[in-house]
């Protein structure tokens, strides 16, 4: 529908800042407007200034550290910035961060989408309200609590799952298990999945709720079952929203610190299988080394933080590309 | 393909509210039947009972019998999904799937019903778009999004989508109320062609439209707000608009109320 609501007989509205006979009228804008303009413009500029300051600081310290690094910063399996000569590299951290986040996403996204669909399309209203409330609460649990629960409750329970994975999927190599304590990247992934589940669920739920009724009715009227309605009208319409929701979750997973530090038995090498303890993530490594680090050590940690920052930017950029690629099909123009 | 609809003693509720009461009528195959009446009289509700879309609304339920051919749509063991595959529907606002191309919109119903070969699909899509008088306008942009078409084209796309699955009946719920006069005319011409193949029921607020496109017209009314809507009379369109047998019908048509 493109019906314009303009009334053609209405007199043209006077231009803002001009009097009716067209002369510029300086100083007649209302003081309230000017104050508000100043405040909002100032806030906008402040954000940019802070961002730029952080970026400059991080980059400066990181460049200092990398300049002194005697090993390859990107490929070395070692973290010894205070040694003589200093040698450190982010390969283990990048691997651990990316792998644990992928595991977390693989577990959390399907479950979150399932819960959100259940809440919006299957559950009776008196059930969906309380469930949504509980999920909101889960999002508010501090990560240190997840970490405690992970270390004290989850880890001791995982032997059974690890054994099962080893029995049935051990042949892939990735899921082979040598019987060590289940403080591996895989466990970290499970814990991260739990932590990012609420945010993905909540945002997806909002997105599913906004699918226009008329698209669902269109599918129903064609003789679609409830699942077919979801597949035909709901999921495609919500696709970009679900991707955004997943990115929010991924952001948390990539940067999660305490819970990972408490569950992972970290080491500076890459394990042959996901189930063997060892490895590390950027945030966990920074948290566990920062306090005792020398100035050089801190600069090295800052350099690793900068890499995490860049990875996060790349992932978000990729998600935006995916969304933009099918913009004309997004439903925004419906 | 067209079948007769025979409704008897039909009540429809929203929760405990009785929206339409005791409706009985027959809709002849290969004809156009128009439902007219003031807002809130239940004509859209009644239309939606004919493909079991009424019960999709929360609290919606129906009592009575709707025979399509010799099958009761509300009989035991009848699957509403199967009913909707036989009774197609076009809505008030054009609602092509925004995430699908023109082609995929038309093919959407077919893909639900089973597997077709690409060539078969191509055939049916072209036939349906031709049937909806849209083929010439979209044949070069089949892979463009359906939501990029104009409002009138979108509505004809929705008609193409509905007739692609060869339903027995086509329900139209004020299909032109969101369209300009030229697009409206295109849809009305189309309705005239489609009645050769389908049983068509159309709800409209536009009485000239009812007079132009329909063979039979049913007038619905309600005694007061909060009262159930009722079928006042159904007759040949010519007779309803020239010499209706009920005074209320004449009052409505001549604009004395409603």
Automatic annotation (TrEMBL), chain A:
<feature type="domain" description="ABC transmembrane type-1">
    <location>
        <begin position="94"/>
        <end position="319"/>
    </location>
</feature>
<feature type="transmembrane region" description="Helical">
    <location>
        <begin position="44"/>
        <end position="67"/>
    </location>
</feature>
<dbReference type="GO" id="GO:0005315">
    <property type="term" value="F:phosphate transmembrane transporter activity"/>
</dbReference>
<feature type="transmembrane region" description="Helical">
    <location>
        <begin position="87"/>
        <end position="119"/>
    </location>
</feature>
<feature type="transmembrane region" description="Helical">
    <location>
        <begin position="175"/>
        <end position="200"/>
    </location>
</feature>
<keyword id="KW-0813">Transport</keyword>
<protein>
    <recommendedName>
        <fullName>Phosphate transport system permease protein</fullName>
    </recommendedName>
</protein>
<feature type="transmembrane region" description="Helical">
    <location>
        <begin position="300"/>
        <end position="323"/>
    </location>
</feature>
<keyword id="KW-0812">Transmembrane</keyword>
<comment type="function">
    <text>Part of the binding-protein-dependent transport system for phosphate; probably responsible for the translocation of the substrate across the membrane.</text>
</comment>
<keyword id="KW-0592">Phosphate transport</keyword>
<dbReference type="InterPro" id="IPR035906">
    <property type="entry name" value="MetI-like_sf"/>
</dbReference>
<keyword id="KW-1133">Transmembrane helix</keyword>
<dbReference type="GO" id="GO:0005886">
    <property type="term" value="C:plasma membrane"/>
</dbReference>
<dbReference type="InterPro" id="IPR000515">
    <property type="entry name" value="MetI-like"/>
</dbReference>
<dbReference type="InterPro" id="IPR011864">
    <property type="entry name" value="Phosphate_PstC"/>
</dbReference>
<feature type="region of interest" description="Disordered">
    <location>
        <begin position="1"/>
        <end position="29"/>
    </location>
</feature>
<comment type="similarity">
    <text>Belongs to the binding-protein-dependent transport system permease family. CysTW subfamily.</text>
</comment>
<keyword id="KW-1003">Cell membrane</keyword>
<dbReference type="InterPro" id="IPR051124">
    <property type="entry name" value="Phosphate_Transport_Permease"/>
</dbReference>
<feature type="transmembrane region" description="Helical">
    <location>
        <begin position="131"/>
        <end position="155"/>
    </location>
</feature>
<dbReference type="GO" id="GO:0006817">
    <property type="term" value="P:phosphate ion transport"/>
</dbReference>
Automatic annotation (TrEMBL), chain B:
<dbReference type="GO" id="GO:0035435">
    <property type="term" value="P:phosphate ion transmembrane transport"/>
</dbReference>
<feature type="domain" description="ABC transporter">
    <location>
        <begin position="5"/>
        <end position="247"/>
    </location>
</feature>
<keyword id="KW-0813">Transport</keyword>
<keyword id="KW-0547">Nucleotide-binding</keyword>
<dbReference type="Pfam" id="PF00005">
    <property type="entry name" value="ABC_tran"/>
</dbReference>
<dbReference type="InterPro" id="IPR017871">
    <property type="entry name" value="ABC_transporter-like_CS"/>
</dbReference>
<keyword id="KW-1278">Translocase</keyword>
<dbReference type="GO" id="GO:0016020">
    <property type="term" value="C:membrane"/>
</dbReference>
<dbReference type="GO" id="GO:0005524">
    <property type="term" value="F:ATP binding"/>
</dbReference>
<keyword id="KW-0067">ATP-binding</keyword>
<dbReference type="InterPro" id="IPR005670">
    <property type="entry name" value="PstB-like"/>
</dbReference>
<dbReference type="InterPro" id="IPR003593">
    <property type="entry name" value="AAA+_ATPase"/>
</dbReference>
<dbReference type="InterPro" id="IPR027417">
    <property type="entry name" value="P-loop_NTPase"/>
</dbReference>
<protein>
    <submittedName>
        <fullName>Phosphate transporter ATP-binding protein</fullName>
    </submittedName>
</protein>
<dbReference type="GO" id="GO:0016887">
    <property type="term" value="F:ATP hydrolysis activity"/>
</dbReference>
<dbReference type="InterPro" id="IPR003439">
    <property type="entry name" value="ABC_transporter-like_ATP-bd"/>
</dbReference>
<dbReference type="GO" id="GO:0005315">
    <property type="term" value="F:phosphate transmembrane transporter activity"/>
</dbReference>
């Amino acid at each position: 529908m493109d019906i314009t609501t303009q009334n053609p007989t209405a007199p043209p509205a006077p231009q803002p800042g001009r009097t009716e006979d067209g002369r510029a009228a300086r100083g007649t804008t209302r003081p309230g407007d000017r104050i508000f303009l100043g405040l909002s413009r100032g806030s906008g500029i402040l954000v940019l200034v802070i961002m730029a300051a952080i970026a400059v600081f991080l980059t400066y310290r990181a460049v200092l550290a990398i300049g002194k690094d005697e090993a390859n910063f990107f490929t070395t399996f070692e973290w010894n910035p205070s040694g003589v000569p200093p040698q450190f590299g982010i390969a283990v951290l990048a691997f651990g961060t990316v792998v644990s986040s992928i595991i977390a996403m693989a577990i959390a996204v399907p479950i979150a989408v399932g819960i959100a669909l259940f809440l919006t399309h299957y559950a009776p209203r008196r059930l969906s309200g309380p469930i949504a409330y509980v999920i909101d609460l889960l999002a508010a649990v501090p990560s240190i609590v997840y970490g405690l629960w992970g270390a004290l409750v989850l880890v001791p329970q995982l032997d059974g799952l690890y054994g099962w994975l080893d029995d049935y999927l051990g042949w892939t190599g990735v899921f082979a298990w040598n019987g060590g304590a289940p403080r591996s990247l895989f466990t970290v992934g499970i814990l991260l999945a739990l932590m990012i589940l609420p945010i993905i669920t909540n945002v997806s739920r909002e997105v599913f709720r906004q699918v226009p009724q008329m698209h669902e009715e269109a599918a129903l009227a064609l003789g679609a079952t409830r699942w077919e309605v979801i597949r035909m009208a709901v999921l495609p319409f919500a696709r970009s929203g679900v991707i955004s929701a997943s990115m929010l979750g991924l952001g948390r997973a990539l940067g999660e610190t305490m819970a990972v530090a408490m569950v992972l038995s970290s080491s500076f090498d890459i394990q042959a299988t996901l189930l063997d303890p060892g490895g590390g993530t950027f945030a966990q490594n920074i948290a566990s080394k920062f306090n005792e680090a020398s100035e050089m050590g801190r600069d090295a940690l800052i350099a690793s933080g900068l890499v995490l920052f860049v990875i996060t930017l790349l992932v978000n950029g990729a998600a935006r590309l995916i969304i933009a690629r099918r913009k004309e099909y997004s439903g925004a123009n419906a | 393909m067209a079948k007769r609809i025979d409704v008897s003693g039909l009540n429809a509720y929203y929760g405990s509210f009785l929206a339409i009461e005791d409706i009985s009528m027959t809709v002849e195959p290969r004809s156009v039947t128009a439902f007219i009446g003031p807002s809130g009289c239940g004509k859209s509700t009644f239309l939606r009972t004919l493909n079991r879309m009424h019960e999709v609304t929360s609290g919606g339920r129906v009592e009575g019998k709707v025979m399509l051919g010799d099958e009761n749509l509300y009989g035991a063991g009848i699957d509403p999904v199967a009913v909707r595959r036989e009774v197609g529907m076009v809505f008030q606002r054009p609602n092509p799937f925004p995430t699908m191309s023109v082609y995929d919109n038309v093919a959407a119903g077919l893909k639900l019903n089973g597997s077709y070969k690409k060539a078969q699909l191509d055939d049916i899509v072209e036939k349906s778009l031709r049937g909806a008088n849209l083929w010439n306008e979209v044949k070069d942009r089949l892979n463009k999004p359906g939501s990029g078409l104009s409002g009138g084209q979108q509505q004809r796309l929705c008609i193409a989508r509905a007739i692609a699955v060869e339903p027995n009946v086509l329900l139209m719920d004020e299909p032109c109320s969101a369209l300009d006069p030229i697009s409206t005319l295109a849809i009305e011409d189309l309705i005239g062609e489609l009645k050769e193949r389908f049983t068509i029921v159309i709800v409209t607020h536009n009485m000239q439209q009812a007079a132009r496109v329909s063979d039979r017209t049913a007038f619905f009314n309600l005694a007061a707000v909060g009262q159930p809507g009722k079928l006042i009379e159904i007759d040949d369109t010519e007779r309803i608009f020239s010499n209706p047998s009920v005074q209320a019908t004449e009052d409505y048509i001549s604009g004395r109320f409603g």
